[in-house]
Amino acid sequence: RNGSYNVYSRFISPALEPLTEAMQITFAANDALGPVAVFGSGGDVGIVYSDYSAGRPQVYFTSLTCR
C-alpha cells in the first residue's frame, strides 16, 4: 500500500467477515515480510516478522493489545 510491504491487522467475525478497516502495524522503510501470529495464555497476541531495512533480514516482534 505504501510502496513497501508492511503488516496490517483487522478484526474479523467468527465467520471470517471483516468487522473493521485494515490497521497498519509496521511502518518499515523496506519490506516487512512473513508475519506470524503468536498467542499468549492471557489472550495477548504478538506478531513476529522479518524486516530487510538494514540490508539483511532481521527478526522483529510486536504485541497487540485490545482495550
Structure description:
With 67 residues, the protein is mostly beta strands. 0% of the residues lie in helices and 39% in strands. It is built from no helices and five strands. The strands form two sheets. The chain has a three-stranded antiparallel β-sheet with strand order 3-4-5, with no helix packed on it. Strand 3 (32-39) and strand 4 form a beta hairpin. It starts with 7 loop residues before the first strand and ends with a strand.
Large-scale geometry: globular
Main-sheet strand order equals 3-4-5
Please count the beta strands (DSSP E, at least 2 residues each). 5
Q: How would you classify the quaternary structure? A: single chain
What is the tally of helical segments?
Answer: 0
Q: What's the rounded overall pLDDT mean?
A: 83
SSE order, one letter for each helix or strand: EEEEE
Strand content: 35-45%
Helical amount: under 10%
Helices and strands: which structural class? mainly beta
